[in-house]
Design a protein that fits this description.
The complex is a heterodimer of chains A (about 425) and B (about 220). By secondary structure, chain A is α/β, with parallel strands linked by helices. Chain A contains 17 helices and 11 strands. Chain B has a 4-stranded mixed β-sheet, covered by helices on one side. Classes of the chains: A alpha/beta (about 425), B alpha+beta (about 220).
Amino acid sequence: MVEPILLRDIDEPGLTDIKVYEKRGGYRSLRKALAMAPEAVLAELEDSGLRGRGGAGFPAGRKASFLPRANIDKYLVCNADESEPGTFKDRELMQKCPHMLIEGIAIAARAGGINSAFIYIRGEYEEQAWILDAAIAQAYAHGYIGERIMGSDMSLSLVLHRGAGAYICGEETGLLDSLEGKRGNPRLKPPFPAIEGLYGGPTLINNVETLMTMPHIIKIGGKRYAKIGVSGSSGTKVVSVSGHVQRPGNYEIELGIPSREIIYDLAGGPPRGRKVKLWFPGGSSSPVLTAEDLDIPYDFDSLAKAGTMLGSGAIIVVDDSTPVLDVALKTARFYAHESCGKCTPCREGTRWTVKMLERIETGEATPMDLDIMASVQENIIGNCLCVLGDAMAMPIRSMIAKFRDELEAHIERAQLAGAGT
Amino acid sequence: MSGGPGFDYLQDLGGRAIPRERHGSRTPGWDEPADLAKDPAAVPDPALLDVAPALRKEIEQAMARYPDPHSAALPALKAAQRHHGWCSPRAIREAACVMRVTPGYLTAVATFYDMFELEPAGEHNVYVCTNISCSLRGADSLYEEIEAAVGGERDINVRHFECLGACDIAPMVSIDNVYYGPLGRGDAERLVADLRAGREPLAELRLALRKTAASELPANEEK
């Protein structure tokens, strides 16, 4: 296994302080990036093959290259609205190593020719916001952000913006509306944020972990970074493992290792005497896999080939003690609660799905309802401004497909129980 | 028409009465028929509405941080909520007055986000995560235990919450925005007793005290 990059110093005492971070080599990559032309920094990011760590997995360098090169008001927004169920990597990274994020933001701003940056952190992360606020103040005081950073021609302002509890604000255009002081409704795309984003200006939006990887890329060079991991999924990834495992937590892995190693060797597997029944490989929005899929390499392309996705890198393990219906209901209720209500297929589809699952639970459903429920999912996918509806439809569809027998048996049992009373 | 700043609010929050307008509703003007010829509710007139200087200053500072002052809507509402205990119509009107927007604009924003209390809220917020990962580890029964321990006391506001991003310490709670977990047997009662006694609840379960999971791997499995 390769050396950890993001978690290398994570438990170093006092790492939230700029002095300790500097002692561990912090802000040296920013110094290096400031000595390079913005185009050269961008080229390193593109060479690295780094794919976005927030969920979509879009190549980060290419995303930055979409920004117009002109000298106009451009914005960088760090998406720290980590709300995907099962995901808690950004929380730990920000809480323990806030300066690496600030350094990454400054490097990304250098690559994009940006001089105004924001961190949008979810409102529930109050302790992390305090830590970041203190770190930002320190970084200003030490001249790593602010006017003419370290004597260079680059200036950068950085503002921490706290959300107030809405999953949809992790969607990049919903986030922009929220940051502009509105309800967090997603926008119609195109225009994409790189062309028209925050306050109408070109905007680069990156996840916390993506930005925190950038100092390392500048340190060792994009081409060398690309050699870590596997083709198409370079680098390391912090994976959040939770649910029915013995050691839930964040683990940094080299992309491409077998999923089994993460679930069993690192997280300790399900409790003694239990078996893995199903697992979400990338947050609750990813189609579920079963015990047969444990040997799939954990990387973007292998998981896509298996019909699911790496998403935010959050593995939720469910063992054989839990009915699949419970998991489906939790999933569907979450998306029904978080749907912003702008697009009909999502607003109505998520609620319909919850109602149908409740009918299964109470024994009012018939097996035909499973087909209707599956068709509801098909009518959501691809029909909305953003992917929140899809994020419910994809896992629910996979649960119906893979656990149909169990759901039918449940319907039958519940009907019998209902008739008996 | 009566209106503007003359409305009475029951200031007696000790009795936990819901602050109401004189006509009985919590929403100003709900019983008046819509007058379509009338302009929409205007930006509150600062000459007619007293805003506490501390609140005004906090909102103005937030507005100064952004290229567009409207971006301060969330910080302004948060400040008003802290000042008034909840996002009361009065709190929203005050924030709107400082931000120079209509109360309707801020009401629309406040109703979108989960962390704004649109009804009078207790002194302590206890958010219990009941999303997938926590529920797999017993969060639903934990929620019931906490609710039972609170026993309807209004000072402690217990809420189901969606994934709080701390599945590593499942089942977990966020108490006044500080994370604690994993909670085990008896912790629900202890949490409530600590809150009532004015102590930090479950102090040793505070998330910030934990090391990364990777650092606690058994040695033979370390790379």
